[in-house]
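Hello Y.,

Per our agreement to keep a running log of every chain we model this quarter, I'm adding this entry. I've kept the format consistent with earlier entries: sequence first, then predicted structure.
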Amino acid sequence: MPVITCISWISLCVEELFEYRVVELSSAPCFSPQADFNGKHDSLFFNDGVRRIDFVLVYEDEDKKDFDKRHTFQRKKASLMKMGMALEATRSVVDDKLIFVKVHMPWDVLCTYAEVLHIKLPIQPNDLASRPSPWRFFSCVTKHFYPSEDKIGTEADFYTAPFEKDRLEYFYVKDQDNFFTPSMRSRMAYYILNRAPYEIRGNIKKFGITKLLDSGVYKAAYPLHDCRFNVRSTELGSPNERLLLYEEWAHPKSFYKMQPLDLIRKYYGEKIGIYFAWLGFYTLMLALAAAVGLGCFIYGYHTQETSTWSKEVCDPNIGGAIVMCPQCDLECTYWRLNSTCESSKKLCIFDNFGTLVFAVFMSVWVTLFLEFWKRYQAELEYEWDTVEFLEQEEQPRPEYEAKCSHERINPITRAKEKVPYTACGRCIRLSLGIGTVLFWILLILASVVAIIVYRLAVFFAFSAKLRAQDLKELEPFREYVTPQMATTVSASIISFVVIMILNILYERVAIWITDFELPRTKTEYENSLTLKMFLFQFVNYYSSCFYIAFAKGKVVGYPKEPVYLLGKYRNEECDPGGCLMELTTQLTVIMGGKAIWNNIQEVLLPWVKNLIFRHCTQAGSEKVIPRWEQDYQLQPIGKLGLFYEYLEMVIQFGFVTLFVASFPLAPVLALVNNLFEIRVDAWKITTQFRRMVPEKAQDIGAWQPILQGVAILAVATNAMIIAFSSDMIPRLVYYWSFSVFPYGDHAESTMSGYINNTLSIFNIDDFSNFSRPHNTPYWFKNSSTCRYRDFRNPPGHHKEYQYNMQYWHVIAAKMAFIIVVEHIVYFTKFVLSYIIPDVPVHVREQIKRERYLTQVIIHEANLKLKHDIGLQKEKMKVEVVYCLRFKG
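Predicted structure for the entry above:
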């Protein structure tokens, strides 16, 4: 015994010297391959009623069907019991070929992987006084807009610290069974499953549940819902959180209530919670923008009948007396200006001075939205323990780890580490990815050019028919159906169809490129894919809008020398009032079509699939279906999860901000869509899909800088839309150049004659043989001139058909407007960004307090450990001396 004591003392000294500790996973309980279902359909536990089910794996029994036995071999090689997990298998009640493997994480395994993943857990209740809500005085009214406190109570607030197994006594552990929440347990189980090896061939290792799912070894892998979404669980101690989420969040009757974000985060994880928090905040901020935009629209609607320029267009003595030149060669003919009366009135709804004010307001609004979101996000980061998540917790992707075959020196630790590729290989991968993205962007631009050619060809056909003298049956519709409108609507629909087709094709390409690049972490993977998809979607969705806003009607020449596209098609012109109405039509078609298509794809298809699946696998009424099999009958979550939800909203954000000067109702449509989107997404993930694997997320990731980039670009695009697509600047130039009394009783009359001033004169004898119209209307036979939209000198002038002085005044005014507005708005954005701190003061204080407590606890733990080691050393020294002196 004394010799053993001496050896123990020496080994303790050696262990202290090298600071070496061994963590050993506990062995798993026995795996029962055919445990019978106990008949408890709501049970969340193994048959013993003690061990909780943390994950479920589903595979098809090869003994029941002629399959390749390699799948069985790979499942045996991916032994999860060796990794400390407890397993229990149960055959399906509905289909006896299916086997459900229930996975349980024992306490020791949970503690080990909680330390590996740096999961933050409670150490002490929050002792800082909470800040009172500014709405507390209106609580009698606001309480009706919040989830019921009787059903969803307020969670206790704790200071937290990264878990350490050796310091378990410092953590706030009331009950071991509930110390780790179900979402934490599922997350740790998924982490182990993603790193379970199943095949090794030379230097190539294959592991991970994702690969096994892709190859068909397993049919599904998912955590369990805790109950049915519309029925309370009969299981003792079940939290019924899914039912609470359905009743207080996803049910249509709760559409007016605020979202229970803490419960969403607790049940689905921080990544889902931060998405719904962002979507709710964005929708709330849209309410203000929608109110101002609706006011701007109402103002334009009431002034459309009183605007001087629309009156002149519709006046038979003014607009009816102005003969316009043909807008295409040969087949097009002359037409009267008053034929565009209705489109001119509609244009006044969107093209007025209120639009300018609204565009400036939206530039400020988007800055406030982003700055206040940063503050709100900082609060959520602290409350949900995701501060410093990326630095501390995120682990490499299994696909990355599996291909690590090269060595390099880590630039930070200066130690050797395994990487999947060399620096040269990384450059090749990135170059291939960039080249492929550029190729697809060029493909989109080619499709845009094709649609432009279609517009020119169809405009030629519509003009020939609608302007033809002999088509008397179209006479009642000519006032409403113009060639420009018919062309725009048909081209917008075709453009939308092309957008949807290219989206489907490019999605697979983007995923393949990102997989080939092999990013290290999941955040890097998602950020890389996000950038690729957004660049593509940006060009795909917005290119047609940019064409109408900044290219159409800008380079058309004049009737004697028109400009041709591809040497064949004459460039199309805008209406006499500009292209703004066409841009509005394009935005309406794309936004409306996109919203309808997304709802069909996100809601209708999963519901129909679940309905068909339940019908095809209908069990007899006497059979009780267990919880894990009920969840298997739901739709699986895609690999990209929330990616498409973010992408949909960011594209919408672009429509709301980039082109809002042409469409003040865009925020209204976005608000209505988002109010449905929140509840539809909630209903979808709560009722139609399996439970998502909970994931941590610090923020909205790469979408944040994308939103900031869109906000910066929106200032320039709106200023340029007002300058080049709207008719506002020419009106202002005319008003200040030709009005004698700008203030007073004659202020309105100063705009009279504006339409005539913007139309130049052309002598029809100057038409070339390739442009001269074949037919002329019966009312045009005695005319010798026609009008076209431009500022050019009339025939007979010494500078015939060259730009006049007013053209250069208008150009100078447009450039000055863009420069002044951009500088004012950018300066305002800079000031707002500076004076609004990204992190609230009270959150900073709580973060400092938590770090202080963590340091104190670690310091005390180290002191106690040193003290205990010192006492043990002294005791052993005494025993050694005793051994040497008295025992020899």
